[in-house]
Amino acid sequence: MKDKILPPEYDNVSLEELTEKANKLIETLEKEIDLNSSVKNYQELLKLNNIIEKKFQNNLRSISDKKKKKIKKITEKNEKTA
After folding, report:
1. Domain map of the chain by residue range?
2. Nearest to 22, CA basis, from 59, 56, 63
3. pLDDT truncated to tens, each residue of the chain (82 aa)?
4. Which of 31, 61, 70, 81 has its CA 20 to 30 A from that of 23?
């Protein structure tokens, strides 16, 4: 699986903060009348969406790895006692 690398400015930003920023951009876009001026905001929203997706996948992978380690540890402990 290809590693998902986040832009450095978003490394320490939580999913909640990114989602909040995306929601604000959506509100701005919904209020926008002139489509020409909304292109930049829309592109930023797409970028944020990709970053949120990558961060979510990284978190999911991390949780999965931790779960596998715990299962392996429990399995090894049970094999020693058997």
Report:
1. 13-81
2. 56
3. 344 565 677 778 888 999 999 999 999 999 988 888 789 899 999 999 999 999 999 999 999 999 999 999 999 888 888 6
4. 61
Nearest to 29 by CA among 11, 20, 41: 41
DSSP class of residue 4 equals: -
List the structure tokens of 24: 């604000």
Contact 59, 22 (CB under 8 A): no
Q: Which two tokens stand for residue 7?
A: 């832009």
Distance in angstroms (rounded) separating the CA atoms of residues 3 and 41: 27
* Amino acid identity, position 75: T
pTM for the predicted model, two decimal places:
0.71
Q: Count other C-beta atoms under 10 Å from residue 18's C-beta.
A: 17
Q: How far is it, in rounded angstroms, from Cα 80 to Cα 16?
A: 42
